Amino acid sequence: MKKKILLILSMCLIMLGLTACGEDPTKVDYNGFTYDQLKGSCENTVEILQSMSESEKAACLASNDEKMVNLINRWEEAQEGVGAYVELGEFTITKSGKTLTCEQEIIYENRPVILTYVYKAHNMELEDITVDQVQTLGEKMTNAALNTLMGMGVVFAVLILISLIISCFKFLSYFEKGKESKAVPAAKEPVAPVPPSVEEVLDAQDDLELAAVIAAAIAASTGTSTDDFVVRSIKRRF
User: Fold this and answer.
1) Dihedral pair phi/psi, residue 86, rounded to 5°
2) Which of 52, 85, 102, 193 has the most CB atoms around its CB within 10 Å?
3) Is 208 in contact with 235 (CB distance < 8 Å)?
4) Facing residues of 92 across strands?
5) pTM of the complete model
């Protein structure tokens, strides 16, 4: 019984999904706006931009309306190299989450241009208007390759920078060791004794000779030997 109920519920969900997928976008109510109204808004914008004179563009650029200024600048950029205008192309409406996007294709001789209106889905408030050239598959592949190469280049540059920083750490250790060696005071060398000067040596020799002479004179006058007494000091009077 449970399996039958689950099977019936699954079939109902599938039918609802198929019904939603097969819904005609031209008959859907977009929060008070119809398909034709949104399409007409995009078509009117294209006609106004194509018929706008240079003075009118300058006046719009001088205004304080940020959306209008951005629209004029984007339109001028998108017109470069597209050639002459041919006709309006396909119009599509896409709802993704809280955003509703209306895209109007504009066909030119060289390449098409897409005018995009971006709305808030819950209140249809206009968020932005963009104008972009449609890129070919080759251009998309080229841009993807360039982005990949740029990303890889940045990664390798960062890795090389990190390796250089790491290699500098050994020089920092050498620098710290040098500072430590400078901070340790050097051992003092022993001071060699200062040898006596020549004058001091001569004075000592003179004193010894004088003492010997005095001792001999005393021994001769007293009739004793020089071994019986010792001359301890000599006082000179100048």
Assistant:
1) -110, -65
2) 102
3) no
4) 103
5) 0.54
In the chain the first and final C-alpha atoms are separated, in Å, by 148
Alpha helices in the chain (DSSP H): 2-21, 35-51, 54-62, 66-78, 137-167, 169-183, 198-222
The DSSP 8-state label assigned to residue 31 in this structure reads T
**β-strand 85-96 against 99-108: which pairing, if any?**
antiparallel
- Give the dihedral of Cα atoms 72, 45, 100, 67; nearest 10 deg: 30
- Could you tell me which of 135, 130, 113 has the C-alpha nearest to residue 73? 130
CA angle 46/82/52 to nearest 5° reads 35
**Mean pLDDT in the chain?**
79
What mean pLDDT comes out for the span 115-132? Answer: 90
CATH architecture of the domain with range 21-133: Roll (3.10)
Helix 66-78, helix 35-51: angle, nearest 10: 70
| Residue 34 neighbours by CB under 8 Å, 6+ apart | none
Closest C-alpha to 57, from 71, 44, 46: 71
Q: Which residues pair with 120 in a beta bridge?
A: 99
State CA 168 to chain mean position distance.
20
> Token pair of 113, please?
């241009």
Domains of the chain by residue range: 21-133, 136-164
**What tokens appear for 219 in the block?**
């021994």
pLDDT of residue 27: 83
Residue 60 near residue 72 (C-beta atoms within 8 A): yes
